[in-house]
Amino acid sequence: MSKVQIYTTQICPYCHRAKALLRDKGVDYEEVDVMAIPGARDKMIDRTGRTSVPQIFVGDTHVGGCDDLYALESKGALDPLLAS
């Protein structure tokens, strides 16, 4: 199973929603709180070109945000990506 990393903040409802989907699927993930970890937001922006959270990676694949994660799930593409 691919490593999942999610850039978040504790106050972001979309972050909570994305993490809930991953938890419901039994996926372990590394959470990077960009408000709590110095330099984490800058690293996220460097990796994604985006400033909003969540930003989700499955392995080396940048999934995008919460809506992108749910779109993959609705197309049946999330499970194969997670399994790769």
Task: Please give a structural write-up.
The chain has 84 residues and is α+β, with helices and mostly antiparallel strands. The protein has one domain (4-83): Glutaredoxin. The chain is 44% helix and 20% strand. It has four helices and four strands, in the order E-H-E-H-E-E-H-H. Strands 2-1-3-4 form a four-stranded mixed sheet, sandwiched between helices. Helix 1 (13-24) links the parallel strand 1 and strand 2 (30-33). Helix 1 (13-24) packs parallel to helix 3 (66-75). It is globular, with a radius of gyration of 12 Å.
Please give a quick description of this structure:
The chain is α+β, with helices and mostly antiparallel strands and 84 residues long. The protein has 4 helices and 4 strands, in the order E-H-E-H-E-E-H-H. The chain has one domain: Glutaredoxin.
Furnish the topology, listing elements before pairings.
Layout: E1 4-8, H1 13-24, E2 30-33, H2 40-48, E3 55-58, E4 61-64, H3 66-75, H4 78-83
Parallel strand pairs: 1-2
Antiparallel strand pairs: 1-3, 3-4
